[in-house]
Design goal:
The structure is a homodimer of 239-residue chains. With 239 residues, the first copy, chain A, is an alpha+beta fold. Chain A contains seven helices and eleven strands. In chain A, strands 1-8-3-6 form a four-stranded antiparallel sheet. Chain B binds a DNA duplex (30 and 30 nucleotides) through helix 6.
DNA sequence: CGGCCGTTTGAGTCACCTCAACCACGGTGG
DNA sequence: CCACCGTGGTTGAGGTGACTCAAACGGCCG
């Protein structure tokens, strides 16, 4: 837990939710917010512990998971820098949030944030649009989980991560050619996200490499050799 | 397309989004809204035709579908009476909406609705909370699609439909014993919702009937004999 | 060096898919 | 009234993609 830094310095200040705030309101939030760090694997918020705060991701990747009593687990979302974490208007979140990599958050109390929402229509508007986008993204993933083959799933995940992690790739269109990414997830986590087993993920990465679409470098590194082909394999109808 | 009836008569007036409106605003919406009917199977809104309106479901069930170029299809959501249909702030919806049963809608232009949202904080608040709930529901379904067995999926669907269609069952807790429901979906649609094949759905219904948990009556009818067991099979961690 | 962890690789199995026939029902028309 | 047909659902037999279990690999760290 650190002393708040000036929002004006913030790494995500023009992509995050708070970009909607006026300078005065931003100053107010600045006073109320505080930074928190988590190291990879740490639990950020569980289902049992009702969380009293929301946050903006400043750095790192957060995974949202749901699980069944017998241990089966599904990752239902990944949060990247500038994304919003939390469940306003509900004391208990329906999922657990865990740091997939080392993570830095900008936290604010849920009550304060809700007040701010009520006062600042622009902020509420931003949150609403983001939430609508989150629904769309979930639907896209439901299509993947319900219909797609293992190969398509793995390809789709690589495309997703490349889009979010690539320096400044345009939101639309294919990622640019010789692109190297560092996977923020272990094989087991990838499997949990894709609704597969980790062995299956490993084999599919193998095949993609054999097909010359990607190249694995070290454990977590992936170089995308043929982005166009990867996009095609992912079978995203929206691209 | 019918002449608007008074909102005061509306079947869903105290469950739908518009419950947030003041009498004056409600009157305004009343003037702008109009009713539309669709018969089962009709397309309500496609991906290609950018929809210029939103609606509240008055009667019937609407299915939201996404599909892959090769024809594989996934139902990503079901809308029941009082639910909201539409995608504010975006000209093209990322899914197609189709009438699963005969449907009656209360429609209003997207532009007018967006203006109303801007003017009425309570309405925007309602929409925001509903959208947040929609995200939660999608996540729940991702858990089903990613982890659950065919039997669990079918059981979960029956529980879902029973909860939404049952007269006034409490939101929480099991549905009450000898409950008869009419499925709003064909076997093929159930399969598309659950990420299964229709033959598999049929076989699982068979097994549930053999186990004495349900009883099939006619094509679409299901009598739930053992609600507690059905809930258990569905494996919903939230119940 | 030895143990640990994440990953890869291999072999065998199974739940669900595929293909195909069959059945029950409702509508149509002779 | 019944023969016909179309549609939606069920049932059966066989195939397969992903799972399961198990072992080997290769960094990393003490």
């Amino acid at each position: 837990m650190q002393r708040p830094k000036a929002c004006l310095d913030c790494a995500v200040k023009d992509k995050a939710l708070c970009k909607a705030l006026s300078p005065e309101e931003l100053a107010k939030l600045n006073r109320l917010s505080y930074r928190k760090r988590y190291s990879a694997g740490q639990l950020i918020a569980g289902l049992s512990t009702p969380e009293a705060w929301c946050a903006t991701i400043l750095a790192g990747v957060v995974k949202l998971t749901k699980s069944l009593p017998d241990g089966r687990q599904q990752i239902v979302g990944l949060l990247f820098p500038s994304d919003f974490l939390g469940r306003p208007f509900k004391s208990t979140s329906p999922y657990a949030a865990e740091a997939a990599t080392d993570v830095q958050l900008c936290c604010y109390s849920r009550r304060h944030f809700e007040h701010l929402l009520a006062e600042q229509p622009d902020l509420k508007q931003q949150l609403l649009e983001r939430t609508l986008d989150a629904v769309d993204a979930s639907h896209e993933w439901m299509l993947l989980l319900g219909c797609k083959s293992a190969k398509e799933r793995v390809a789709a995940l690589l495309v997703l991560i490349a889009r979010r992690l690539a320096p400044d790739a345009g939101a639309a269109g294919a990622v640019q050619p010789p692109l190297a990414i560092e996977l923020p997830l272990s094989r087991a986590e990838i499997a949990d996200y894709l609704g597969l087993r980790l062995e299956t993920v490993s084999r599919q990465l193998n095949r993609l490499e054999a097909a010359g679409v990607i190249k694995r470098v070290a454990r977590r590194g992936i170089a995308i050799c043929n982005a166009r082909e990867l996009d095609r394999l992912a079978g995203d109808p929206s691209s």
